[in-house]
Write a structure and sequence with these properties.
Layout: H1 2-20, H2 31-48, H3 51-62, H4 74-91, H5 97-102, H6 108-118, H7 123-172, H8 180-231, H9 236-257
């Protein structure tokens, strides 16, 4: 929701400034300038990155990496681990096997972690297995952020290229003053499109994705630490104390975002 509001505010600021200065709305609508900026940026990204990387960016922006999805809050996750710690302390690690199926739809990593605990895996093996999943998600997110940041670098350059095209058009119309206006509009509007695409769309989306993925990695670290505590058969109170810092971290992150 905040993404849509941000885009609308940016559009309102640009168009509103133009209209307040007495400009006409039609001057900002230049399809050829949009084609140069958007088409050129996409083309440059396609040259630099594989198609799979570009596809993953679009998918992650829309719905996120399903492997990183964690629908439980950290408080709920901590309470679940404390409850499982009590069951493990009384009946052994096999007592948590029934929980694995219940959490499968909430978090794939939590499902894997509980299954590993239930099968009697050691804390070291659990940590190694789950950290591999976290590392894969981190690499995919880093690639997505890199793609968006690269696009944010290409877009202004494409705007300058559009401006050059406009100047070339102007020079070819010196003998026909009536058509100079369209060439000048193309030159400057292409620059606006390039800067706007970079600073109102691509770079903010890169920062947003980076923040979201950091939160997902924190959730995964919580699951890893909780699973290792279960494998070590820590007492429920000790598990709660170990994991309490994750809830405080989420609280500070939420206050910073708001």
């Amino acid at each position: 929701m905040t993404v849509v509001v941000g885009f609308l505010l940016a559009l309102l600021a640009l168009v509103g400034t133009h209209l307040l200065d007495g400009g006409e709305l039609g001057l900002l609508l230049q399809p050829s300038a949009a084609l140069i900026v958007v088409g050129g940026t996409v083309a440059a990204l396609a040259v630099q990155y594989r198609w799979e990387a570009l596809r993953d960016v679009l998918y992650d922006l829309r719905s996120g990496d399903p492997a990183a999805a964690h629908r439980l809050s950290r408080e709920e996750t901590i309470r679940l681990f404390v409850a499982m710690a009590g069951a493990v302390h009384r009946r052994g690690t096999q007592a948590v096997m029934g929980v694995a199926a219940d959490v499968a739809t909430e978090s794939s990593l939590l499902h894997t972690a509980v299954e590993l605990v239930g099968r009697g895996s050691s804390a070291e093996d659990i940590r190694t297995t789950l950290e591999l999943s976290a590392a894969r998600i981190d690499r995919r997110a880093a690639m997505a952020v890199d793609v968006l940041q690269a696009g944010g670098g290409f877009a202004p350059t494409m705007g300058v290229l559009g401006a050059v095209f406009g100047l070339v058009r102007i020079m070819s119309m010196v003998s026909n003053p009536d058509q100079l206006g369209s060439g000048i509009a193309l030159a400057f509007v292409a620059t606006i499109y390039g800067l706007g695409l970079a600073n109102f769309v691509l770079l903010p989306l890169a920062g947003r994705m980076e923040t979201r993925v950091q939160g997902q990695l924190d959730d995964m670290e919580l699951v890893i630490e909780g699973a290792c505590a279960l494998a070590n058969r820590d007492e429920p109170k000790l598990v709660e104390r170990k994991l309490a810092s994750f809830a405080r971290t989420q609280g500070m992150r939420n206050r910073a975002v708001s």
